[in-house]
Design goal:
CATH superfamily of the largest domain: Glutaredoxin
Keywords: Membrane, Transmembrane, Transmembrane helix
Largest sheet: 5 strands, mixed
Number of domains: 9
Number of helices: 58
Number of strands: 54
Helix content: 40-55%
Distance between the termini: 101 Å
Shape: elongated
Strand order of the largest sheet: 5-7-6-8-9
CATH topology of the largest domain: Glutaredoxin
Pfam family, one: Thioredoxin
Strand content: 15-25%
Oligomer: single chain
Radius of gyration: 45 Å
Structural class: alpha/beta
CATH class of the largest domain: Alpha Beta
C-alpha cells in the first residue's frame, strides 16, 4: 500500500514506528495532534510498523518521519515529540519548491522505484555547485511536469561508485540505467531539453566501468557493447543496435555501451566492438555479425529464454573461478559447427538447468592456454573447479546423465581433508537433502575466522563418520539471509531445525562434543525453532502450526503438555507442529499476549481463538483449516450459467494433477470472502477446453467476467492481495458506458483509490430517481474524461450517514478532503451538474472582487443574493489566509447566482454591527445573515451560502441589524440563544421547520447571540423568543420545543393585530386568507402615493367596525396583484365573499361611505360589477355559438337510391 501511494505521487508524511516501543507510542500520541492540520494542508499522514520497510529507505533508527512529495523522500531530523515543529517543517516542505537533498540509501530506493530520475551530484560547500544549483532550481517545476524526479546528493563516495570524478555532475536514470550529461550545467534550458529528449527517445546509454559493475550486480539480464567511440565502424554497429533497443526493453534485457579498452581487456576482449551478455553475473560472448541487428536480437532473446552454456574467454574464466565456489568448464578446443565437440556441447546443454539450481556455474571456452596451465592436454575435456581446486572428469563425456550424477556425488563436491566451501544455493540444497548438517558462517577477510576454520578442519572427519555434513560459507549478506546474531557463527541443523553454538569457537573438542550430543539426542515432541528456522518453515512448509509462548507465562507449560499429545495426529494429517519464543514474530502477527496458536497454510497465518487446553478441539480446528476449500468447483454447464447470471465472476482455471494448484488455490481462498463483499463470485474450473477458449493453454490462470465480458489476470497469481486489488479496481469493474452500480464495499474502495468520485444516491422505490439518472447518464463520459469516477449506489443508510436525507442526491468526494460536498442545484439540469463537478474538482477561479463605499452599499441594496467578506489587514493574522481559501469558492458562488465580494470598509461593517474580523455576511434582498461557522473550511462556507439561497433559513443577525429591522419590519420574530447550548440548537432546528409558514404570514424570523441585548427585553434565561409587531415586543411564554404551538402563537390574530391598524399582507398571505376567510376586505394601495396614505388613515378608523361584522380587513401594496382582480386604479377596496370579488366604486373622502358599502355587501347577495357582467356575457355567447356550429350546418339525410329489379 505504501509503495502504491508513493508511486501515485501522493503528498504524504510516513511515520515509521515500532508498536512495542514506548518512545514510538509517545511520538505517535504527539503527532496525532497535528493529523487534522496535515489534512488541511493536503498531506496524507500514515504510520507503518515495519523495520524492513524502513531499512529500504535507509532508516536504521525508529521512530522516524519521512515526507514524500511526488515520490521523493525527505527525512525529518528534528525532535518528533515536538509536534508543532514537525507541523511547521511539513508546511515548509510543502511550500518550498527546492530540489530535494537525499541520502545514498534514498537514492538507491528512488532509482529502483521511479522510472525517470535526474540526480545532481554536488558539493554543498563548493561555489560552483552552489551557482549551478541556483540555475537548476529554475527547471525543477518543468521536470515535475514531465514526470522527471529531480534530486541532489552531496556524497563523494556515492559519486565514485558511478565513476563520477568531477563534481558537480548530472546523471539521468531511466528505469535504473544511468545517462551522464556532458553539456554545460549552467545552461538549464539546454539541460531540460536533454532530459526530455532522454525520456522520450530511447538510446543505448554510455556508461563508465564503475556503473557497469553496479549494473552487473543489480540487473538480471544485461548486454554490454564494448566499443571505441572514435572508430567509424564501431559507431555504425552502435547505430544498428539502436534499432533493437526497444525490443530488448520489452524482453527485459538492458543494453548499454562502454568506451574503455582497459576494461574490455580484463574480459579477454582483444578487438572492438564486442557484445557481452551477462545473466546473473555470468558473461557470454556474442560471436556473430554485430551489423546484423536482427541476428543479435534473436541471440540475446535466446540467451535469456533458454538454458545455454555461456562461452567465455580465459580472462572471464579466471574471474569466475576466483569469485565462485563451483565452476564446471567444458574445454572444447578449436571447435566448428557440426564437429563432434559441438555435438557434445549440445548434449551438455540438457543438464545446465540442474547445475544452475545446485549453484554450479557451467561455461565453455575454446581458449586452450588456461587449460594447459592446469595440465589439460586433450580436448574436449570437462573440469570441475571446487573452491579453485580442479577435478578432471574421466567418465564418458558423451553421456550427460552420467556427468550430472558425477557432479552430485559427495566425493566430487568435497575436497578431502577440508571443510567444503559452499554458496547459498548449494547450502540450501545440502540442508534440504541431509538430515544433519553443521555450517560455519564467516567473513572471508576475517583473520580470526581463518584460524577457527583451521581448528574445525580437525573434527571434519569425525562428523563425516556420524553422517554429519560439515560445510562453510562466506557469501555476501549471509548473516542477514540466515538471521545470524553475528559472524562468525557455528550452527547445527537437524531437518532444517537449527541450534547456534554459544561457546568458544577455537575449542574444537568442545564443539565436537556439542555436535555429537545434538546428533544423538531425541528431539522434543513439538520441535522448538528459532526465528530463521521458523521463517524457512513458513515459506517452505504448506501446512504448519506454530505454538507461540513465553517463559513468563504461567499457563504456557500446561498447555504445551496438552498439545504434545496431538503432535502425532497432526503429522498424520500432514501438519508440521513447532513451538517458538519469537516475540518479534508474534508482534508482527498482532500477538502481544501468550500463549497463542497460529496455523500457516502456504505462508498465510490464521489465528486460533478457542480454548488451547482442549487439545481435541485444537486438533479438529487444525484439520478443518487443512481441508477447508471455500471456492466452488464447477462444471462447464454451471460455469456458462454463472457467466450469464453473475454480474462479477472470477474463474480460476486449473489442472487437477498440477502440484502447484493447492498453494495457488489456497492463496485465492484467502480473498474469497472479501471479494464476495464487493459482489464478486469466485469459482474454480478444471475444464481445459474452457481454459483454452479464454486464453489459457497451460493453466493455471484467472479470467474475470464483468457483466459477461472477460479480461485475463496477468499479475502474480500467488499474491492474493495483488489479485484482490485487481479484481476490485474500479477500472476493471467498470465495463459499460452507463454509470456503474456499486455496493458499499466497492464504494469504499473507489473512495480510497480515486482522486475524484461523484456518487448518485438513489432508491428503487424513488419515482424521480430513474428520470434523474437518465439525465445524468449524458454527462458520465464527460466526467470520466475529466478524471471523475461517476458511480451510483442504492443505500439509504449510507446516504443518511453522509448527509443525504432525500433521494435522489449527488455527492462529490475528493481524496484528502475531510467532508464530501452535496449537490444542491437542479438535478434535472445535467449541464449544471457537470459544471458543478468540474468546479468541485478544480475550485480555483477568479479573484473575489474588492468593493468599498457607495458602490458597496449600492450592491447590497440591489443584489438578491450577496456574500460580503469583511476583513482587515492590520491586527488580523488569519484574514489573509482565510481569504485565500474563500477564493476557491468564488466561481461556485457565481454558478449558484451568489455575488461574492470582499471589503475593508469599516464604516459599512459598523453599520451592520460587524466588529470582529474576519466576518462573512450574506444578504438576500438586503436582509443580512451572519455566518457563524469556521471560515477556513471553504466547502462548509459554500454549502451554507447555497443553503441560504435555496432554502429559507433563519438568519443570524447582529445588534445593529436587529435595531434596523425592528424599525423597518412590521412582524419580526427574534430568537435569542447562546453558543454551546444543546437545547438552543434543538429548538432552533424545530423553528426552522415553521420558518416558511411564518413567511406566508409576513412574519420575518431571525436569530441573535447577544446576552446584553436580551436583558433589554427582560430575558434572563436562554433560549427565548420575542415577537415585534411594528416595533412592539411580546415575549413567548409557552413551550419553545413545540414549534407548532409557536407558529399558532405567532399567527394568532390577538398577537398579530395591533389596535386601530389594518394588517399588511403579501400575496401568499392574501391567498391563504381568501381560502380561509368567508368575508374579506382588501385595501390595495401604493406605498409612495399621497392619496393612498390619506385614504389609509381614514380606513384605519373603521377597522374595529369591520371586525364587529366578522369582515377581515387587510391592506396590500402590490399593484400587479390588484390587477388580477380587475383593479386598474389605486387606491381601491375590494370585498370578497367566498373568493367572489366586488370593487368599491364610491368616494374615499368619507370612511363612513366605505363602511356602509361593506355593511350592505355583508348582509345581501353580492352584486356583480361591470367586469363580471361582461365575463358572464362573453361565456354565454361562446357556448351558444358553439352549439350553433355543431347543429346549424348539418346536411339533410338523403333517401337511398331505388333498387334495380335485377338486384332484387
Amino acid at each position: 500500500m505504501l509503495d502504491r501511494l508513493i508511486k501515485e505521487g501522493k503528498t504524504m508524511a510516513v511515520l515509521f514506528y515500532d508498536n512495542n516501543d514506548r518512545k514510538s507510542q509517545k511520538v505517535l500520541n504527539e503527532l496525532e495532534n497535528i493529523d487534522d492540520e496535515c489534512d488541511t494542508l493536503g498531506i496524507v499522514f500514515v504510520k507503518i510498523d515495519n523495520a524492513d520497510e524502513a531499512k529500504e529507505y535507509g532508516i536504521e533508527k525508529i521512530p522516524a518521519l519521512m515526507y514524500f512529495e511526488k515520490g521523493i523522500p525527505t527525512l525529518y531530523t528534528g525532535n518528533l515529540e515536538e509536534e508543532e515543529k514537525v507541523l511547521k517543517w511539513l508546511e515548509n516542505q510543502q511550500k518550498t519548491d527546492e530540489i530535494e537533498d537525499i541520502t545514498d540509501e534514498m537514492l538507491d530506493m528512488i532509482i529502483e522505484k521511479m522510472h525517470h530520475v535526474a540526480v545532481l551530484f554536488y558539493d554543498k560547500d563548493q561555489k560552483k555547485s552552489q551557482k549551478i544549483l541556483a540555475e537548476l532550481e529554475n527547471i525543477d517545476d518543468e521536470c515535475d511536469q514531465h514526470d522527471i524526479a529531480f534530486v541532489k546528493i552531496d556524497n563523494d563516495k556515492e559519486a565514485k561508485e558511478y565513476g563520477i570524478d568531477t563534481i558537480p555532475t548530472l546523471v539521468f536514470f531511466e528505469k535504473g540505467i544511468p545517462h551522464i550529461f556532458e553539456g554545460d550545467l549552467m545552461k538549464e534550458e539546454e539541460l531540460l531539453s536533454w532530459l526530455v529528449h532522454q525520456k522520450r527517445h530511447s538510446e543505448i546509454p554510455d556508461i563508465s566501468d564503475e556503473i557497469m559493475e553496479k549494473l552487473i550486480d543489480k540487473v538480471e539480464y544485461l548486454a554490454v557493447l564494448f566499443y571505441d567511440k572514435d572508430d567509424k565502424q564501431d559507431i555504425r554497429v552502435l547505430n544498428e543496435l539502436e534499432n533493437i533497443d526497444d525490443e530488448l526493453e520489452k524482453e527485459g534485457i538492458v543494453i548499454v555501451r562502454l568506451d574503455n579498452d582497459a576494461e574490455a581487456k580484463e574480459y579477454g576482449i582483444d578487438h572492438l566492438p564486442t557484445l557481452v551478455y551477462f545473466e546473473n553475473k555470468i558473461p557470454a560472448l556474442y560471436e556473430g555479425d554485430l551489423l546484423n541487428e536482427e541476428e543479435v536480437l534473436k541471440w540475446l532473446i535466446h540467451q535469456k529464454e533458454t538454458a545455454t552454456i555461456e562461452e567465455v574467454t580465459d580472462e572471464i574464466l579466471h574471474e569466475l573461478i576466483e569469485d565462485h565456489e563451483y565452476v564446471f568448464v567444458y574445454f572444447s578446443g578449436r571447435c566448428e559447427e557440426g564437429d563432434e565437440c559441438d555435438n557434445i556441447l549440445d548434449e551438455l546443454e540438457n543438464i545446465d538447468d540442474e547445475l544452475d539450481e545446485s549453484g554450479i556455474v557451467f561455461v565453455t571456452t575454446e581458449d586452450m592456454n588456461f587449460a594447459k596451465r592446469h595440465g589439460i592436454k586433450t580436448f574436449p575435456s570437462l573440469v570441475f573447479f571446487r573452491n579453485k581446486e580442479p577435478l578432471v572428469y574421466k567418465g564418458d563425456i558423451n553421456d550427460e546423465d552420467e556427468v550430472l550424477s558425477w557432479l552430485n556425488e559427495e566425493d566430487t563436491l568435497e575436497i578431502p581433508g577440508r571443510i567444503e566451501e559452499v554458496n547459498i544455493k548449494m547450502l540450501e540444497k545440502i540442508l534440504a537433502e541431509n538430515e544433519h548438517v553443521v555450517v560455519f558462517f564467516y567473513e572471508e577477510t576475517d583473520k580470526k575466522s581463518q584460524k577457527i576454520i583451521s581448528e574445525l578442519e580437525n573434527i571434519d572427519d569425525e562428523c563425516e563418520e556420524k553422517d554429519i555434513s560439515f560445510v562453510k560459507t562466506s557469501d555476501e549478506g549471509i548473516e542477514k539471509e540466515y538471521d545470524l546474531p553475528e559472524l562468525p557463527s557455528l550452527v547445527f541443523y537437524r531437518k532444517k531445525f537449527r541450534k547456534i553454538y554459544t561457546g568458544d569457537l577455537m575449542h574444537e573438542e568442545n564443539i565436537l562434543k556439542w555436535v555429537l550430543e545434538l546428533h544423538e539426542s531425541t528431539p522434543d515432541v513439538i520441535e522448538s525453532v528459532d526465528r530463521k528456522t521458523l521463517q524457512v518453515l513458513i515459506n517452505d512448509v504448506e501446512h504448519l502450526a506454530v505454538y507461540l509462548y513465553d517463559d513468563k507465562c504461567e499457563s504456557c507449560d500446561e498447555i504445551l503438555e496438552e498439545l504434545e499429545t496431538i503432535d502425532d495426529d497432526t503429522d498424520e494429517h500432514g501438519i508440521q507442529f513447532v513451538k517458538s519464543k519469537d516475540n518479534k514474530l508474534a508482534s508482527e502477527l498482532g500477538i502481544f499476549s501468550f500463549p497463542a496458536l497460529v496455523y500457516f497454510e502456504t505462508g498465510v497465518p490464521i489465528m486460533y481463538d478457542g480454548n488451547l487446553l482442549d487439545e481435541s478441539q485444537v486438533l479438529k480446528w487444525m484439520i478443518e483449516q487443512r481441508n477447508d476449500e471455500s471456492i466452488e468447483d464447477v462444471d462447464r454447464e454451471t460455469f456458462l450459467e454463472y457467466i450469464d447470471t453473475k454480474e462479477f465472476l472470477a474463474v480460476v482455471f486449473y489442472v487437477e494433477d498440477d502440484p502447484k494448484n493447492p498453494k495457488i488455490l489456497r492463496h485465492i481462498e484467502l480473498i474469497d470472502d472479501e471479494a464476495a463483499e464487493y459482489g464478486i463470485k469466485i469459482i474454480k474450473c478444471d475444464d481445459r477446453l474452457m481454459a483454452k477458449k479464454y486464453g489459457f493453454r497451460n493453466p493455471p490462470g484467472i479470467t474475470y467476467f464483468r457483466k459477461g465480458k472477460p479480461i485475463n489476470y496477468d499479475g502474480d497469481i500467488d499474491d492474493e492481495e495483488e489479485l484482490l486489488d485487481w479484481l476490485t479496481d474500479p477500472a476493471n469493474m467498470e465495463m459499460t458506458d452507463h454509470i456503474e452500480k456499486v455496493n458499499r464495499k466497492m464504494f469504499e474502495k473507489i473512495c480510497h483509490t480515486s482522486d475524484y468520485v461523484a456518487v448518485f444516491f438513489y432508491s428503487d422505490d424513488c419515482k424521480q430517481c430513474s428520470r434523474v439518472l437518465a439525465e445524468i447518464e449524458h454527462i458520465d463520459d464527460d466526467a470520466d474524461s475529466a478524471g471523475i469516477d461517476f458511480v451510483k449506489i442504492d443505500d439509504k443508510q449510507l446516504a443518511k450517514q453522509i448527509g443525504v436525507f432525500a433521494l435522489p442526491g449527488i455527492v462529490f468526494f475528493k481524496m484528502g478532503s475531510k467532508e464530501p460536498t452535496i449537490y444542491a442545484g437542479d438535478l434535472y439540469d445535467e449541464a449544471e451538474i457537470l459544471n458543478w463537478l468540474m468546479v468541485q474538482k478544480d475550485p480555483a477561479g477568479d479573484m473575489i472582487e474588492h468593493v468599498e463605499g457607495s458602490d458597496l452599499q449600492r450592491i447590497i441594496d440591489e443584489s438578491n443574493a450577496l456574500a460580503v467578506y469583511f476583513f482587515r489587514t492590520d491586527g488580523c493574522d488569519q484574514c489573509t489566509s482565510i481569504l485565500e481559501e474563500l477564493e476557491n469558492i468564488d466561481d461556485d458562488c457565481d454558478r449558484h447566482g451568489i455575488t461574492f465580494i470582499k471589503t475593508q470598509d469599516l464604516s459599512v461593517a459598523e453599520q451592520y454591527g460587524v466588529s470582529d474580523f474576519p466576518c462573512l455576511v450574506y444578504f438576500e434582498s438586503q436582509t443580512p445573515n451572519v455566518f457563524e461557522g469556521d471560515l477556513s473550511e471553504e466547502e462548509e462556507v459554500l454549502q451554507w451560502l447555497i443553503t441560504q439561497k435555496t432554502e429559507d433559513r433563519i438568519e443570524l443577525i447582529t445588534r445593529v441589524m436587529l435595531e434596523t429591522m425592528v424599525e423597518e419590519t412590521q412582524y419580526l420574530a427574534v430568537y435569542f440563544y447562546k453558543l454551546n447550548c444543546n437545547i438552543c440548537d434543538q429548538i432552533l432546528e424545530g423553528l426552522e421547520k415553521v420558518d416558511d409558514e411564518c413567511d406566508i404570514y409576513g412574519i420575518h424570523m431571525v436569530k441573535i447571540q447577544d446576552p446584553q441585548l436580551a436583558k433589554r427585553y427582560s430575558i434572563k434565561t436562554f433560549p427565548a423568543l420575542v415577537y415585534f409587531r411594528n416595533g412592539n415586543p411580546l415575549i413567548f411564554e409557552g413551550d419553545l420545543q413545540n414549534e407548532e404551538s409557536v407558529l399558532e402563537w405567532l399567527i394568532d390574530d390577538e398577537n398579530r393585530e395591533l389596535a386601530d391598524e389594518i394588517e399588511e399582507v403579501n400575496a401568499r398571505m392574501l391567498e391563504r386568507l381568501l381560502d380561509e376567510s368567508l368575508l374579506l376586505a382588501v385595501f390595495f394601495y401604493e406605498t409612495d402615493h399621497k392619496d393612498s396614505v390619506k385614504v389609509l388613515e381614514r380606513l384605519e378608523k373603521i377597522d374595529g367596525e369591520t371586525d364587529n361584522m366578522d369582515i377581515t380587513f387587510v391592506k396590500m401594496a402590490d399593484p400587479r396583484y390588484a390587477r388580477k382582480w380587475g383593479v386598474t386604479k389605486l387606491p381601491a377596496v375590494v370585498y370578497f365573499r367566498h373568493r367572489f370579488p366586488s370593487i368599491y366604486r364610491g368616494d374615499f373622502e368619507s370612511e363612513d361611505e366605505v363602511l356602509d358599502w361593506l355593511r350592505k355587501n355583508r348582509y345581501r347577495q353580492p352584486e356583480l360589477n361591470i367586469f363580471m357582467y361582461a365575463l358572464i356575457a362573453i361565456t354565454t355567447a361562446f357556448v351558444l355559438y358553439t352549439v350553433f356550429l355543431l347543429y346549424g350546418f348539418q346536411r339533410p339525410v338523403q333517401a337511398p337510391p331505388p333498387v334495380h329489379p335485377k338486384q332484387q
